[in-house]
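Backbone-to-sequence.
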């Protein structure tokens, strides 16, 4: 986690001098700029985030857009290699940051809007970057950290997003920029930013929702971006058509991208750039490639300054056609070749369609292009008209994604695992502040999240297999109800346990050998089980931990445990499993030892604090629901109702399923992306 980063912002004094109030900042941009001298062999990987959307350039080259769309429980940061963009001498790092009012951002997040679906935090534009610059030998020779380097900042109150009540929730915006007052060349190496203000340290960045609801001010827990960076590929337009009063750029097919324009013209001339999926219906009924129709679409507006103006929209545009028109009625003067940076989720297409019928291949290509156009940081209904995410559309897109790629990172999944992720990431993201209560809450939440995540994913796979006529056994059998570790591992990840039994344990001799060899066989299986989850010593230690406990159960403690009451054995089993999850989840031994120590009071400042009490108050109902979900009671009730000979049973079972579905919908639609936790192992 990356929680110790220093945030920077526009100085309050500058806002007061310009007589700009907090309420005037919504939809406006701040430009952050850093100049850095570097050697020829400099290497740099940086982490970056902002309170809302940002766009990063290095040496006037577009690198990426962020922050990745999150929700009320998640603030993401991006990790990106900047080495390909560096050169010897002066380098310029430029970041354009959009300010979002926190309250508005929270409402817009609830509506799943594309551009605005980032929860604003703090009370101004704020940026965080951290990255060590190294030479070819790995020695640190500099930094671009917002906590150390001197960044310049300028508030551009002439460049802003325009949106209506309708478009704001769809993520469809228009931009308005006055090049006479806006330094559009601020990303260039030769731009003089010496008159800009020095960025100052920002105060604690906090989610507005937490502050307003409970009055606490916990630090934001930043999380690494869970999906890959969007691809950006420079492309040329298929056609450029010069008409009487306007210019038409044709990409050939509908795409998502960042178009780049160069304009010349008299100062005060307004250029209108309109993005079209198709032309409007003309007299003859326009087709998508018929330019005889009307120009209808969202537009950006650029007022020229009498010099060459280079312009690129801040947020991605969806278009096939772009119509450029000048307010003076003349054909717009565009001296440079116009290009666009095509963008989208980096979907790896691994499936093909082979047919002797030509239209089948054409249809396959259209389907793939449609899927890719509807994949950015979320699945989208349709990128041009409505950049929202809907559950049934997403279901179809998920299934198609599974058919063409092995990549499931953008897919939606289970209810409880994702809900518990907010608790888990919050606590595990700030280990230094752990108390006894928060440590136990975080570990219990992790244990439940891991179970529901993997078992839910397995159930989904079993259900999808049934659609194709395949029947697979259950992979989990309520393992947290076990009264011994032996029973637990017979119930947990059953398919993996059977594989190790059949292909490792039995070939080694199983239990039909001497006691020393049997101990060897069991420990070997558990060491390999740890390595199966990852090439880390913590996984090896986790495997040995369970191997040793299972041997103790089988040999010296067998008689004692047989006489122990079942509730006590159950508690001991849960305690052993939960403690083992600390090793399983920790990146290294020091973190594991630290966490275990805090669980049992070692080095803790207190048993609980205000943050721990908040986590408990906010999540106790969810934890209770998760614990109940570990048992067979809901499934037993459902089966009893289904197989009841009375008609009310069928009705009640149907209502139960509908109720569970309706419960899932708000979680799946309110959150923008849910990771598959077990995929990292």
């Amino acid at each position: 986690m990356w929680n110790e980063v220093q945030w920077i912002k526009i100085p309050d004094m500058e806002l007061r001098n310009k007589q700009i109030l907090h309420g005037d900042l919504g939809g406006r941009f701040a430009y952050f700029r850093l100049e850095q001298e570097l050697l020829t062999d400099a290497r740099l990987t940086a982490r970056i985030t902002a309170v809302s959307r940002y766009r990063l350039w290095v040496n006037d080259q577009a690198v990426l857009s962020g922050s990745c769309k999150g929700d009320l429980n998640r603030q993401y940061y991006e990790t990106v290699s900047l080495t390909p963009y560096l050169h010897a001498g002066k380098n310029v790092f430029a970041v354009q940051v959009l300010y979002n009012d926190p309250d508005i951002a929270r409402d817009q997040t609830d509506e799943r809007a594309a551009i605005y679906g980032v929860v604003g935090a703090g009370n101004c534009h704020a940026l965080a970057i951290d990255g060590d610059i190294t030479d070819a030998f790995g020695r640190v020779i500099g930094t671009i950290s917002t906590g150390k380097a001197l960044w310049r900042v300028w508030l551009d109150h002439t460049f802003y997003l325009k949106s209506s009540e309708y478009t704001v929730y769809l993520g469809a915006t228009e931009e308005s920029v006055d090049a006479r007052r806006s330094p559009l060349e601020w990303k260039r190496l030769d731009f003089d930013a010496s008159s800009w203000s020095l960025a100052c340290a920002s105060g604690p960045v906090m989610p507005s929702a937490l502050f307003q609801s409970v009055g606490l001010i916990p630090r934001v827990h930043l999380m690494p971006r869970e999906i890959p960076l969007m691809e950006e590929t420079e492309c040329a337009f298929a056609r450029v058509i010069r008409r009487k009063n306007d210019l038409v750029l044709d990409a050939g097919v509908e795409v998502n991208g960042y178009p780049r324009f160069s304009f010349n013209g008299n100062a005060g001339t307004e250029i209108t750039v309109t993005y079209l999926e198709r032309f409007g219906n003309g007299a003859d009924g326009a087709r998508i490639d018929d330019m005889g129709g009307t120009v209808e679409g969202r537009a950006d507006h650029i007022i020229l300054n009498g010099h060459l103006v280079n312009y690129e929209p801040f947020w991605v545009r969806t278009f096939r056609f772009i119509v450029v028109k000048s307010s003076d009625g003349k054909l717009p003067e565009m001296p440079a070749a116009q290009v666009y940076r095509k963008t989208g989720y980096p979907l790896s297409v691994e499936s093909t369609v082979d047919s002797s019928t030509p239209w089948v291949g054409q249809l396959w290509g259209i389907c793939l292009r449609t899927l890719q156009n509807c994949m950015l940081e979320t699945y989208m209904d349709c990128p041009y008209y409505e950049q929202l995410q809907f559950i049934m559309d997403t279901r179809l897109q998920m299934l198609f994604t599974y058919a063409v790629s092995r990549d499931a990172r953008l897919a939606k999944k289970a209810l409880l695992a994702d809900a518990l992720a907010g608790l888990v990431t919050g606590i595990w993201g700030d280990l230094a502040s752990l108390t006894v209560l928060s440590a136990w809450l975080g570990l219990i939440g992790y244990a439940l999240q891991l179970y529901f995540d993997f078992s839910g994913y397995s159930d989904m796979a079993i259900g999808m297999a049934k659609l194709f006529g395949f029947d697979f056994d259950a992979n989990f059998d309520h393992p947290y109800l076990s009264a011994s570790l032996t029973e637990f591992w017979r119930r947990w990840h059953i398919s993996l346990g059977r594989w190790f039994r059949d292909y490792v344990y039995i070939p080694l001799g199983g239990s039909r050998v001497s006691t020393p060899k049997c101990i060897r066989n069991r420990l070997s299986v558990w060491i390999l089980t740890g390595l199966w989850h990852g090439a880390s010593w913590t996984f090896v230690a986790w495997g040995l931990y369970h191997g040793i406990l299972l041997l103790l159960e089988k040999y010296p403690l067998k008689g004692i445990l047989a006489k122990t009451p079942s509730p006590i054995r159950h508690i001991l089993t849960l305690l052993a499993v939960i403690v083992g999850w600390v090793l399983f989840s920790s990146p290294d031994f020091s973190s594991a030892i630290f966490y275990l120590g805090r669980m049992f009071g070692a080095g803790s400042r207190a048993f609980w604090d205000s943050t721990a009490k908040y986590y408990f108050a906010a999540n106790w109902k969810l934890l209770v629901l998760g614990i109940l979900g570990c048992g067979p009671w809901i499934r037993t009730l459902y089966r009893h109702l289904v197989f009841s000979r009375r008609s009310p049973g069928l009705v009640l079972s149907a209502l139960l399923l509908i109720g569970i579905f309706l419960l899932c919908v708000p979680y799946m639609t309110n959150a923008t992306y849910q990771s598959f936790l077990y995929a990292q192992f």
